Amino acid sequence: MPSGSSRRASKSTGRSTADDALSETPKIIRQALVIGALGVLLGAAVNFSLVKRFARGEFRETFFSQADNSSVRLITLQEAEDLWAAAEGVFFDARGAGPYGEGHVPRARNLPATESGQKLPADVMELPRERTLVVYCEGGDCQSSLLLAKRLHDEGFKDIRVMTGGWEEWKKAGLPEEKGDDKE
Amino acid sequence: MIKNKTLLVLFRLVLGGLFVYAGVVKVLDPLDFAQNIRNYRLVGQSLSFIAAVVLPWLEILAGVALALGVWKRASALIISGLLVFFILLTLVTIARGLDVDCGCFGALSRKSGLGVILEDLGMLFMGLCLLFAPAKQI
Question: Does B93 lie at the interface with A, CB-CB under 8 angstroms?
Answer without folding.
Answer: no
